[in-house]
Please model this.
Amino acid sequence: MTPDILTRLKAAGCPSRELDAEIELALKRCDPEATYDKAEDCMIWSEPRDFGSTVAYERLGQFLPAYTGSLDAQKPLAHPDWQISSGNCNEDNAPWACVTTPDNVDHTGDGAATEELARLIALLKATEHVAAPPGTPQHAG
Model:
C-alpha cells in the first residue's frame, strides 16, 4: 500500500470512489481481463482521465466494493484471526479503529473523518504488516 493512499484516506472527509478504485488496484484484487455489465458507478476504472473536477477511469470490468463508505465492504480485507474494533469516542465523538494481528501488533486508524475511513486505514496497515518480510520497517507495525 502506498503511503499516499493512506495519507489521502486520512485526509478524506467522505467516501471516495476514486480511492476505492486505487485501493482495489493496489491490493491487486481485480482482474483486468474480466467483464461486467452492471451500472458504471460500480466499476473499476484505470488510466485516469480528467473531466473537470473529477477523474474517470477506463473500465476494467469488475464490481468495485465501496471500501471508503461501508464497513461491510471492508470485510474481505480482514483475516479471520485479526481482532478488529472501531467506533467513535471522546467528547468530540472522533472516529477510531484498531486492528490487532496475531503477533499482537496494533494498527490504528485514528484521525480519520468517519469510522469507515478509520477502520479501512487500520485494515490496510495490518495488510501491509502481514505481507512484509520480518525485520522490515513495514513488519514492525
